[in-house]
Write a structure and sequence with these properties.
Beta-Lactamase; alpha+beta; 6 strands; six-stranded mixed sheet
């Protein structure tokens, strides 16, 4: 664990005492994608543990924001492996050169609170919730399985293009593989094989497109 991450362990413990058992607090060391979790409080919320992997959203932000100055993102939707809706926030830990080397993540489960609120608001016929949130707005998947993380992200990106794999043009292949590369998918071991299956392409073809994009 590097020096920048160690400074946040006591902060994570402090937040855990304040926020209680409905909020999971995770500290990621992002120098190791596959085993990034180095400290966790209330791991029952996402069923993850120390030694588990980075999430799809944090991986994406490492690439898109690593050269920027964004320090945190707040109040976005995520879901755990059971599909339960969570409310999440992430604070990025940077080193002296401004590179993202870690992340402090909070995931709150308000399922029981919402059930109680739903009952109470059912007694108010004119009540309208203008912040209805569904699983269609999920930005992050909290999983302890790196392969599942990879598959979820691949599916999300491919579905955005609304194409039929065996009828893709060269331009469409380039666009999809570029989008996958920008999200950091190809930094995960085994991702080329999974993308090849999804796009009905050979692995050498995927590598050729990646090389073409980077050049």
């Amino acid at each position: 664990m590097n020096q920048y991450i160690k400074k946040f362990i006591s902060i994570a413990d402090f937040l855990g005492e304040i926020l209680g058992s409905n909020t999971e607090i995770i500290l990621h060391d992002l120098t190791n994608y596959k085993h990034s979790i180095v400290h966790i409080i209330n791991g029952h919320i996402s069923n993850r543990k120390i030694g588990d992997s980075i999430t799809d959203l944090v991986l994406e932000f490492m690439l898109t924001e690593s050269k920027g100055n964004k320090q945190y993102i707040c109040n976005y939707n995520s879901k755990n492996i059971e599909g339960r809706l969570l409310y999440s926030s992430t604070y990025f830990i940077r080193d002296d050169s401004n590179k993202i080397v870690g992340a402090l993540c909070l995931n709150s489960d308000y399922h029981d609170v919402k059930k109680s609120l739903s009952f109470l608001t059912s007694l108010l016929p004119n009540y309208v919730d203008d912040k209805i949130i569904s699983l269609n707005n999920i930005k992050e998947n909290l999983s302890s399985d790196p392969q599942e993380l990879t598959l979820n992200k691949i599916d999300t990106i491919i579905n955005q293009f609304n194409i039929v794999p065996n009828r893709m043009t060269t331009e469409e292949k380039t666009e999809i593989i570029t989008a996958l590369d920008e999200c950091g998918i190809f930094n995960i071991r085994g991702s080329v094989q999974e993308v090849a299956k999804k796009l009905q392409m050979s692995e050498p073809s995927i590598y050729r497109y990646i090389k073409k994009i980077k050049s």
